[in-house]
Each structure stands twice: as C-alpha cells, then as structure tokens.
Amino acid sequence: MRTTRHGILAATAASTLAGAIAIAAPSTTDITVTATRLPGEKIAVHQATGSFYSEIRLSTKVDAAGLDLSTAGGAAALEQRINDAALAACQEITRLYANATPDEATCARAAAKSAMVKAKALESAATRAK
C-alpha cells in the first residue's frame, strides 16, 4: 500500500509539474487529456488528518504541432493521438490501482471526449485559416 500511495503522489506531482511548465510556456497546439477514475478503495493521504483521495486524475499533453488540421488526415492523426493518450493514462491508473473504476475503456472514452473539444476547435480554426 505504501508504494502505491507514493506512486500516485509521484504521478500527481509530475502532473502538477507538467501543468506548471505548460503555464510558463503555453502552446496553442497543446491539448490536455485528463483521465479520472475512482481507486476502488479508500486510500489514506495523511494519517493525522484522515484525508482520503476521492478520485484519481492523471493528465498528459498531446501536441498538434506539425499536423495539418485542415485535412482529414491531419485531423484523424490528432484524434488518434488523443485516443492513445487517454488510454495510456487510464492504463497507468490501473497499474497503480487495479480495482479502479470505471473500466479502462470507459475511462479512455470520457478522457478523449473531453479533449476532443479543443481538438475540434483547432481543426475548425485551421480549416478557416486555409
């Protein structure tokens, strides 16, 4: 249990650090994909206060740079990158918490759907600019 707790804290810290870096150097072609799951059990965060995680979030960035989003091929490539990142994030949560819910496929669909909002906006902007 101790290793797992440190694993999620490390993942959270890495995610927070990545977010801080993204704030320092924002990119209009970055899309954040965030997987959210419940651990399947209560996990103590701080023994003295009795705090617990209510959900686990793991975020990653997908970069659309270098893709021509005004074309069907470019848009499809970006959507594939988002789907791959969403699944990888959900699988990482499973690695840390085997009983996490919802299942990986449901988690990945939700994470990708949320990220697709910005992807569609980037695709529309690229099409209008052409």
Question: Would you give an account of this structure?
Answer:
This protein has 130 residues and is α+β, with helices and mostly antiparallel strands. It has one domain. The protein is built from 3 helices and 4 strands, in the order αββββαα. The protein has helices spanning 2-24, 72-96, 104-129, and strands at 30-37, 44-46, 51-52, 56-63. The chain has a two-stranded antiparallel sheet. α2 packs antiparallel against α3 (104-129). The termini are far apart. Mean pLDDT is 80; it is low at 1-25.
The helix/strand class is alpha+beta
- The radius of gyration is 17 Å
Helix share bin: 55-70%
Average the pLDDT over all residues and give the rounded result: 80
Please render the helix and strand layout as text.
Layout: H1 2-24, E1 30-37, E2 44-46, E3 51-52, E4 56-63, H2 72-96, H3 104-129
Antiparallel strand pairs: 1-4, 2-3
Helix pairs in contact: 2-3
Features:
130 residues; alpha+beta; two-stranded antiparallel sheet; 57% helix
State the gist of this model.
The protein is α+β, with helices and mostly antiparallel strands and 130 residues long. The protein is built from three helices and four strands; from the N terminus they run H-E-E-E-E-H-H. Helix 2 runs antiparallel to helix 3.
